[in-house]
Amino acid sequence: MTKILLKSATLVNEGKEFVSDVLIEGKRIIKIASSILVDGIVEEINCEGLHLLPGCIDDQVHFREPGLTHKATIQTESRAAVAGGITSFMEMPNTVPNTLTQELLEAKYQRASEVSPANYSFFMGASNDNYEEVMRTNIENVCGVKIFMGSSTGNMLVDNTSTLEHLFANVPMLIATHCEDEGTIRTNLEIYKEKYGEDIPMSAHPLIRSAEACYISSSKAVDLAKKNNTRLHILHISSGIETALFRNDIPLEQKRITAEACIHHLWFSAADYTEKGAWIKWNPAVKTEVDRAQIWEALLDNRIDVIATDHAPHTIEEKQQKYLQAPSGGPLVQHALLAMLDASANGKIPLVRVVEKMAHAVAICFQVKDRGFIREGYFADLVLVNLNRKTTITKESLLSQCAWSPFEGTTFSASIEKTFVNGQLVFDEGKLTGVQSGERLLFNR
Q: SUPFAM superfamilies given for it (predicted)?
């Protein structure tokens, strides 16, 4: 069995930074010590000056397969993910067809097993009329159930009150929600159509998909969860007012209601629509600088628990359309960790907390088995980063199929040097190795 010895790396793990060796055998970490001597054949990698992090776990991506493969595929986007230090992903059900049956869900798992260099899990989708299918979901090998309480595609908007009550009362696993109130958004949109016709400016997006729309829906989800003791996870918090819905007075392991912040809501603000336009059009919308500051505050004081990407690629041609036609979403998995390392270098967040929010806390929230930490016996999902080597994002460096990024032209302060998935090197100094070692995530439930 192959052994890999990582020598003299600076580990960033469980709130500490320290220099150590790490020995990998097969898929797992078998020893962590200040100095490790190994008998027999071993591949030794000198990690002096490099920081070793647990691989990031992204709990919200849209990889577009099946049905939307002109935008992206599981293969292309998982490759971009490992190039960015994301070793595990959880993918959403609003593909075509929507993932509303167990058979369609398992088809995704089968496809990922054939092509993904990253570990994978897929959410089961809920609709107004597939309750029985939802209840067949295996809590040990599926990350959760996704409920669109707004901004849905296909048949996935769950707006029937009795259905919501039934799901929140009875689903025995984590429910993840997209929260925007459709009635409020429709009313706002009509106002801007009346004012601008077909030429609504992109800067109106956070006014149409407003903080009020988010809060109405998020507070409804929280109320339902409190009433039913549901394990609720609210995705992509985008407004400051929503942060008051969450608590930080108990350990994460004890929380029944958790929340996620996304890279774009931490990095961009409404001031960026002038330059970026549709390239930063997401649902929920990137909002004001005040909202961004309040999301950061909630992230740092643990009202918001995890950082994700909501990676959702569209083609360049689609994004170049006018406001009403340009779809929401964009590619982020390749640069999410780089963005957070940059934020750390600029003093916005300690490095140990980047690791906490992008690896440890995600593993705790979802009860991921044997991942998310650098521990003996855990899977060797690891990323080596160089905090002193800059990375400039060029079009030629992009791995997402859509071939654009809102970060094009940005120079980050760090670089991703190597990524290991299940003990195998999948990304090495700017290049994919071609190794496909991703596995289905399992959960301690």
A: Composite domain of metallo-dependent hydrolases (SSF51338), Metallo-dependent hydrolases (SSF51556)
